[in-house]
Amino acid sequence: MTGLGVTTAVGQGKTAFADALFAGAQRFAVMRRPGRQAGTRFVGAEIPAFAPTNRLAARELRTVSLTGQVLLATLEEAWTEARLDEVPAERIGLVVGGSNLQQRELTLAQDRHRAKPRFLRPSYGMSFLDTDLCGLATAAFGIRGFAHTVGGASASGQLAVIEAAEAVASGRVDACVAVGALMDLSYWEYLGLNAMGAMAPESCADAPELACRPFDAGRGGFVFGEACGALVVERVGARPAPAEPYAALTGWSVQLDGNRNPNPSLEGEVRAIGQALERARLTAADIDYVNPHGTASPVGDRTEADALLAAGLTRARVNATKSITGHGLTAAGAVEAVAALLQMRHGRLHPTRNLVEPIDDRLRWVRGEAVEAEVGHCLSLSMGFGGINTALCMSKCESRRA
Amino acid sequence: MKSEEILPLIHEAIVEVLPELDGHDFQETDSLDALGANSMDRAEIVMIVLEAMNLEIPLVDTFGPQNLGELARHLADKTAVAR
């Protein structure tokens, strides 16, 4: 894994993001972006002004959604770090994690033209497709290997990393960029998630900074956070002098529950952890750090804590990135893999905001302050509605076993 | 609506879609193609003009004209028919 890019509400770029993580920063507030509220006071973390890519002309930017602009800026960071300009375009792939990514801007366009639908802009016919993001990115970066999206609800970002790893391992391409794309919720999606009880209650608007509390006894559900993460995965030996890798992706797993509903499964999560460890030829005792899914869902966090215990991950330190970023939904798995790799490189683990009363004392939480920690092997976990459980195992290159 | 009234709407729509043409001295003989519009840009420009004119016709009915003057006259004819 040779290049990382990240854009979140608490920081654009690895340096700002790492600083924000270690400081336990936050930017939760009643959301203000057009199309986010319907007489509501939904809390979330919105990305402030960010530096766009310079690969697009002004005329091209006009029809590019927020999701697309953030994707390009984030991809640029990972691409530059990995020096992908040195890799033949035909040998580079792109996997964009997420589906139904640009709902807010579609809602705004529909609202604008509701009374005169025949004047809807022709570009809507192109941009309503998530795959427009693939076209946009491959045109901007000259990618010629392959590009497609993968949907896995809140596991989409991690699923993209796994698809990229498979594409590189199979020899289909030499390098592949996995992106967890920004899921731009409109008030409709937020209302739906809120109605089903997934979100922290609207009353959190009175103290937004306290709303997102993964693994805390007082947790009340997800708090949305705009985010995007990009990771470059390369096959070892595919080029003579790649960029200094952050880590080796030593194991991964996708396990399904055969369940359409949003409820988690202890058994499925334990299977995903077990298979990722087995693939990496490691045991739970080898894992120094776990970056869990940790959404602050009452049942989700309880189930995940039980899964970590059942898998024997009692030596590893655990924190929850979503307490700082909010829940990036489709972006989460990629952003959290980036967070894990940055912590690994810095030898520090970020605090978990609002973890006042942990739901389980048997796990080794990182709570109020960042801590120094040598991380040789770590796990990152994601779960998605519809019975999706994924796990990644990442190992420092010098810690890698034969 | 007369073609002289439609031309400024076309110019505005072109600049909205192709901002680099802001300040360009548009001629009736300019073609959208020569101004740098691709097929999607052309469709966007024409739809913006149709909305500004409140003229509900299928986009396919605007495909004949070869330059801005012809497009303006073509749309003027359509408004005459629509009335």
Automatic annotation (TrEMBL), chain B:
PROSITE patterns: CARRIER. It comes from the Bacteria. Gene3D superfamilies: ACP-like (1.10.1200.10). Pfam families: PP-binding. Residues 4-79 form the Carrier domain. NCBIfam families: PRK07117.1. This is Acyl carrier protein. It comes from Streptomyces sp. NBC_00060.
